[in-house]
User: Fold Lacto-N-biose phosphorylase from Bifidobacterium magnum.
Amino acid sequence: MTTSGRFTLPSEENFAAETKRLADLWGADAIRNSDGTHLDDEVKALGKTIYSAYFPSRAHNEWISMHMDETPQVYLLTQRVLAESTNAGIKLMATFYEEQLQPNWDADPKKYWEVVDRTTGDVVDPGQWEYDREAGTVTIHDTRPMHEYTVSFLAYIIWDPVEMYNHLTNDWGDKEHEIPFDIYHERTRKFVMGTFAQWLHDNPETDVVRFTTFFYQFTLIFDQQHREKIVDWFGSGCAVSPQALDDFEREYGYRLRPEDFVDEGCYNSAWRIPRQPQRDWIDFLSTFVRANVKTMVSMAHEAGKEAMMFLGDQWIGTEPYKDGFEDLGLDAVVGSIGDGTTTRMISDITGVRYTEGRFLPYFFPDTFHEGNDPSIEAWDNWRKARRAILRSPVARMGYGGYLSLAAKFPKFVDAVTRIADQFRELHEKTDGQGAEGELNVAILNCWGRMRSWMAYTVAHALPNKQTYSYYGILEALSGMRVNVRFISFDDVLTHGVDEGLDVIITGGPVNTAYSGGDIWNDARLVSTLRAWVRAGGALVGVGEPASVAGRGDRFFQIADILGVDEERFQTLSVDKYFPSVTKDHFITADVREGETIDFGEAVANTYPINERVTLLSAQDGEVQLAVNDYGEGRGVYISGLPYSAANARLLERALFYASRRERDYAPFSSSNPECEVARFPQTGWYCVVNNTDRAQSTNVRTGEGSVQHFDLEPNGIVWRGL
Assistant:
């Protein structure tokens, strides 16, 4: 087995000897500088590929401090203020962090700001309000008593949000705040391109420019107590400027309102059903961003260097799953590995020569401190990622942060040594190709391919009570023996259902981008899916799929396929009868006696639409799991499914059952849900992985019908020839 390569090591100043030791131990063939540090000459002389982090839109205060009107801007929504008389005053920054944000008084507030009566939704005429720059307030006249009012105002972002986070996490004290800048302004754009050209000239030893990232930060806004206030990994609101707004109007023929950004306080969350102005802004922004990315990539190539993009921080506008990404000429994408879903978010990107995963934990003092064992997180992170890598491999791995912290923890150092060896062995056995998928599965929602592996997410790989019941579906799929794609409702309306699909999964909470909202009022969508399932397709609905109110006794518009609907207090006078729960069924065959299935947050008042529905789980008068024959096809309803080994197994069996492929399930399936099997016919191997930190045993039936027994050590992986 190869014991070196495919590994990127972070380093820092005055740490050359330990860098060499750990590079040898972990088999690193590339070294990058840690955030805010530089590599020693002794490290550069080790003969490794040198990555250099490059920040196109920050780390040059000497420039931007003289041009503070060219920092990125964002529309902010003030707190609601109740008018108790005919006048009301609103303090703009009452709920925001003044060291991060500063109102833009330079561009005419009467043109670029908006005051809204939130009780009626009406825009207040600019003649009815005035602003006081010194006091930082807006005063509204002729208000309606007992109505609430807000101000949507442009604000400069005067402290880079990621550098701010690092500053606070590492307690950098008096270190100068890094001010971001916006290349939409011509003179700043010229400065950025000129500075980069000089940097390329001054850094001949750099092999790979690791752009971290490009120009616009995902939405990350802090409150007056330095806490995260608005976090949206997809948010494109921190890229606004009066010039961009004016150019948008000229190009698209209409003017964006401040409300198109603050969105009634929702800030265009990816969970919101996307509106046309939001889609147009994403298109406008990505067109501009990509043109300038392409310029910087070409400059790097002309200097004889590779161009790598970090999928994080200022990634907004690059849109790696939007058509045309391959035209940028990037050599690689690297991203943070949080779990299987975020691994696939990176590894499934096309249009680059290779992808790289930055594993956790990050070498920061919040994890690497006395009394903590970082190896626990390292193994947990690797187990989650490994499931996905077996299906869609990243070509390289690495870590980030301060190596001097990690070096103090021998148990962690040993864990990374073993993880890196497993990663390289995996590549040797598979030739860098993913395991065979046996079913073709599509996730159907408003966003489709553009948000591949990004559905059901708020912040990168972070849990959320309202989302985990849906996100668990993606996490299960990320390491499952199926091929996954993402399609939109518009795709189905325009092109129908791809004949190569076996299963479609759709759903989410009502009135979200994932359940679809009013799109289900289009009869063409419902009839297309009905015809496809009746002809033999399989449809899985999760949560409140195809849910639209106001349609009489039908809330789930595909209830006839799923066999389940939701009572919305409109048909309480119509009795609902639950058939008996079927205890022995293919889908639940691996649920052990006395074991309770975790369906996450309950979906209230779901019921079977008739007694022909096969009910597999129900509690407190609510359906949790049901199946329904529909012509030659089948529907499956699941109320929610947080990720666990047991739930991944349940979903996998549901997909095979729904597509009438039960006979194909047993071969190369593990008898123990805590272990999974991945098969690689192209190289003649299959492997069994232990997805726990405890020893496990399992049996695997091979294609010839024989049964192989495996005893796996904690975190273990065993390879066998086919």
User: Anything to note?
Assistant: The two ends are 19 Å apart (CA to CA). The first strand starts at residue 7 and ends at 11. Residues 189 and 435 are 44 Å apart (CA to CA). The mean pLDDT is 96.
